[in-house]
Amino acid sequence: MSTINYNETIPNNVNLSEDKTLQRALEHWQPNYLNWWRDMGPNGSLNHDVYLRTAINVTPEGWAHFGHVKMPEYRWGIFLAQAEENRKINFGESKGRDAWQDVPGEHRANLRRIIVTQGDTEPASVEQQRHLGLTAPSQYDLRNLFQINVEEGRHLWAMVYLLHKYFGRDGREEAEALLQRNSGDQDKPRILEAFNEETPDWLAFYMFTYFTDRDGKFQLNALAESGFDPLSRTCRFMLTEEAHHMFVGESGISRVIQRTCEVMRTFGIEDPEQVRAKGVIDLPTIQRYLNFHFSVTIDLFGADQSSNAANFYTSGLKGRYEETKRDDDHLLKGQSYRILEVAGGSLVEREVPMLNALNEVLRDDFIRDSVAGVGRWNRVIEKAGINFRLSTPHKAFNRHIGGFANMRISPEGQVISEAEWLSKVRHWLPSEEDRAYVASLMGRVIEPGKMANWIAPPPVGINRQPIDFEYVRFN
Ligand SMILES: [Fe+2]
Ligand SMILES: [Fe+2]
């Protein structure tokens, strides 16, 4: 069933009305979710009419319907990608058997943990971004922020559905707890560290959606391979929404770079102080933000060696990125993978069992994918004839999880002393002063078609609307 039933309190394509107990449980959770949205969702936005897309159908063609809606009235619901007939488990010790339509008892605890950890990131990012609407550089950008926020809200719905349907009372308790933890909260923080960081300004927002939403892409792809079919189908549909989030990040940074380069060229300036004096963001500051978001995000993949990762794979719960496109035995026993570690004052490779290194495998896939976009940003700089290139830092730089935690490693991958780190860190990571400067540029621009001075307009609007379309009506 690909079409979504919008006649019910909770839109869905899972025949929710046939399971009254589940329907009642979710209808009981719904007002708590809406309260969370009012308290922790986008600040000051409840009355805005926002030009949003809503899913009407889960097939790849034309699932999106666009129109102005007030966000609290957005039709959050439960949408699973279409079932694949006779789908099998494609890896691990149950490889070749039918995919599970219910939770196998022996994997219940691990699956619940996987779903809760994924689910926790979704509302966390809405909380992290809740003040950004007050400083949006244009209506177009404001609309994109809100689109991402409502979809992250829907991703929470996706995980809550799985918890309610397949995990009984424990699942219902976990679903409540997902609304009780809050990003950055002293007593009840979100589970993963990167989701407790603030997203204080729009440069950080674009970096977050480029890098951290891409972590989402890789985690969801790995879970889309799961032998637990409802999780796979949920993640496959979530991925269609995730693409837009990364687009907002990539194109946002690209527009910031374009504007900076225009100003540098017009005035023939290169010195960051002179560039700042013109009210745009100098390229070294963009590099420092990139370093920060890249390093914080790759921590999300977890320790480089992990017995949990091996377990999740062997038991068929979480695959690799594009598992079925790889031509190996999908068991990985006896295979090895090269990880890096510090020995004798430098980074050296070491072969370890691949099953234990699956976090690192996924992290390396992520790194390859994110480097590609950085290349596209560099072409904007190159085209402007400016002699500067952005790059992703070495994967050992500024890590807080895994073997490099608390080691001092430069963006080029040199093991360095604490003293050297301290003397150079302000060139590598955003300083208080960088953040204060970027914050000083943030002011709300609400006139249709107008852009803040520090960012170029997008080449095209949303859904083929003009750039000066009224994407948000403030009422
Ligand atoms: Fe998400
Ligand atoms: Fe996302």
TrEMBL record:
GO terms for biological process: phenylacetate catabolic process. One of its GO terms (molecular function) is oxidoreductase activity. GO terms for cellular component: cytosol. Signal peptide: none annotated. InterPro entries: Aromatic_CoA_ox/epox, Benzoyl_CoA_Oase_BoxB, Ferritin-like_SF, RNR-like. PANTHER family: 1,2-PHENYLACETYL-COA EPOXIDASE, SUBUNIT C (PTHR30458:SF0), PHENYLACETIC ACID DEGRADATION PROTEIN PAA (PTHR30458). This is Benzoyl-CoA oxygenase subunit B. It comes from Undibacterium terreum.
